[in-house]
Design a protein that fits this description.
The structure holds two protein chains of two kinds.
Chain A: E1 2-10, E2 16-25, E3 30-34, H1 41-48, E4 56-61, E5 64-65, H2 74-79, E6 81-84, H3 96-107, H4 111-124, H5 140-152, E7 158-162, H6 170-185, E8 189-193, H7 197-202, E9 206-211, E10 214-217
Parallel strand pairs in A: 3-8, 3-9, 6-7, 7-8
Antiparallel strand pairs in A: 1-2, 1-4, 4-5, 9-10
Chain B: H1 3-7, H2 16-40, H3 42-74, E1 82-86, H4 92-103, E2 108-114, H5 116-127, H6 130-134, E3 144-149, H7 156-166, E4 171-176, H8 179-220, H9 222-230, H10 235-278, H11 289-315
Antiparallel strand pairs in B: 1-3, 1-4, 2-3
Helix pairs in contact in B: 2-10, 3-8, 3-10, 8-10, 8-11, 10-11
Chain lengths: 221, 322
């Protein structure tokens, strides 16, 4: 589902964020991506959702070479991927419902369908009773759940999560990880960047480790 | 929520009619949302509307004033008269021939012959110099033909007739009497040009003001734009609410412009009719009218869109998720 072939990314200022990284993530897989900060985890995610383009090598997502996607088609590509961000990236002047509905509004669903899907997603993350709340009134864990609901509401094939448990205590982190496992069990390919080694080693999934832009372990299927 | 729903984790491709409906829906949504935002900041929006209204009212008000002046001067626009002073040594008989020849022209309505004797008599009677004139050896006045062009002859065509008549060998000099009217018309034309130039500058100003206002609202919503782009919002999707914001500012500005012009006319109405009454005229100020006001709204809307487009194309592409 996600395939990197000798991918390098050099930023304009000359910093090599990724060097010759190759790996493949199969459909329905759940993979953790780990490494120190600055190891290239975020860069790798950015390449998958086309926030950046590889300097060398090939990034293939769902069978499509990312180099073949023109800039104007990037939004459509992003609509096929659910993303959970460390800092949630919620709209703080909109209620929980509107935040989760955003991808569906962008995709142009009619409001009945949006209502059904948003409530289903909120139910899944346990926030159905908070749909009219503003994000500021929610705890960090709840905000992250809103972010997750927004990521899955469009039923993406791929779910990316960049440090989804970064600011949460261990118990909450475990709950969040369990959510991702549940999505994975229904057929979503999940890639989670996290430096919480204690947590992810307990979960018995494949772990890809990056160090200074190089892939250290976990490259083979 | 059911797992079964997620199990169908296949992107459902939307049909064309669905897409059209979605597009329409987002237009409605953007329009309503933008209007809400404009009305929520009523004081700031009022200021923007007033600035745009004043900038538009100025050239439009001047234009309305010029229209009124044209209307007024049209009443004076009787066909001008050309005075032909004949050369010395022409007797009355040859003058009569000339009169008939000129009268036969298509562009001449009538010719009145004033012989030098008549002219002298009239001059003596009116001027009070009868004694002096009587002591002159010969009559210093020339024969005079007063030529009235047909009413349809206006502007430069009248002058063309004058120069044609001036070329006849019997004619010493041809003078267009109503030259002051032509001068007035020229001044009015010049004023209209000036109003157009000022209007053009102010229109540019309105577009820039609106562009800047929209730029600020883009800056204010920068984070929101980043998030929308992160979850797959296309550029047109992000652009739409801002274009509608520009539209609402522009239409509101147009409304205030119409209001300002109407208020000014109402303010001037009674002194103008007083003045007109003093000149025994029943002249009345002509206002914008419904169509004029509607045009102002439309023009305002278009300017708003233009300003928003300017801001959006310049600044929106630069906002990318980092």
């Amino acid at each position: 589902m996600i395939c990197f072939e000798r991918v390098s990314k050099r930023y304009d200022e000359g910093h090599d964020a990724l060097r010759e990284v190759s790996f493949e993530i199969a459909k329905d897989d759940l993979v953790f991506l780990t490494g120190h900060s600055g190891a290239g985890k975020s860069t790798l995610m950015r390449l998958v959702m086309l926030m950046d383009r590889a300097t060398r090598g090939k990034v293939i997502v769902d069978g499509i070479d990312m180099a073949s996607i023109p800039n104007r088609s990037i939004p459509a590509h992003r609509r096929d991927i659910g993303v959970v961000f460390q800092n949630h990236q919620l709209l703080f002047d909109r209620c929980v419902f509107d935040n989760v509905a955003l991808p569906l509004v962008i995709a142009g669903y009619d409001h009945r369908e949006i209502g059904r899907r948003v409530r289903a997603a909120l139910d899944k993350v346990g926030l159905l009773n908070r749909e009219r709340a503003l994000p500021v009134t929610l705890s960090g864990g709840e905000q992250q759940r809103v972010g997750i609901a927004r990521a899955v509401v469009g039923k993406p094939k791929i779910l990316l999560a960049d440090e989804p448990t970064g600011n949460l205590d261990p118990a909450l982190s475990a709950e969040i990880m369990q959510l991702f496992e549940e999505f994975n069990q229904v057929g979503v390919t999940v890639l989670i960047a996290s430096h919480d080694l204690i947590l992810i080693s307990k979960l018995r999934h494949r772990i890809i480790t990056l160090s200074e832009g190089r892939l250290v372990t976990g490259g083979a299927l | 929520m059911s797992k079964s729903r997620i199990e169908g984790a296949v992107q459902s491709k939307t049909r064309l009619s669905d897409r059209y409906n979605a597009w329409l829906r987002h237009h409605r949504l953007s329009a309503a949302d933008s209007l809400h935002r404009v009305l929520d900041n009523l004081v700031a929006s009022l200021m923007t509307w007033l600035v745009i209204g004043i900038a538009m009212a100025l050239p439009v008000g001047l234009d309305v004033a010029l229209d009124n002046a044209t209307e007024l001067s049209a009443g004076w626009d009787s066909p001008s008269q050309i005075s032909l002073f004949l050369k010395e040594g022409q007797d009355s008989a040859s003058a009569e021939t000339l009169v008939r020849e000129i009268e036969a022209r298509d562009d001449v309505a009538g010719v009145h012959f004033v012989s030098r004797e008549d002219a002298l008599a009239e001059f003596s009677a009116l001027s009070g110099f009868a004694d002096v004139l009587a002591s002159l050896e010969k009559n210093p006045l020339p024969n005079l033909l007063l030529v009235t062009p047909v009413a349809s002859l206006v502007g430069t065509a009248t002058d063309g007739l004058r120069s044609q008549l001036a070329q006849r060998e019997e004619v010493a000099e041809a003078v267009l009497d109503m030259e002051w009217l032509q001068r007035l018309n020229s001044i009015m034309q010049l004023s209209r040009r000036l109003v157009m130039a000022i209007g053009g500058l102010l229109v540019l100003g309105v577009v820039l003001i609106l562009g800047n206002t929209i730029r600020l609202s883009i800056e204010n919503r920068r984070e929101e734009i980043v998030i929308v782009k992160l979850v797959g919002g296309s550029n047109p999707f992000v652009r739409r609410p801002f274009l509608y914001t520009g539209l609402w500012y522009g239409v509101g500005g147009g409304f205030f412009a119409a209001l300002l012009v109407s208020l000014s006319l109402w303010f001037l109405e009674s002194p103008v009719s007083e003045l007109a009454a003093l000149y025994q005229s029943d002249f009345e100020l002509e206002g914008l009218g419904m169509m004029g006001a509607l045009n102002l709204l439309i023009l305002g809307g278009l300017l708003g869109l233009a300003g928003a487009w300017l801001a959006v194309t310049r600044h929106l592409a630069a906002i990318q998720p980092r």
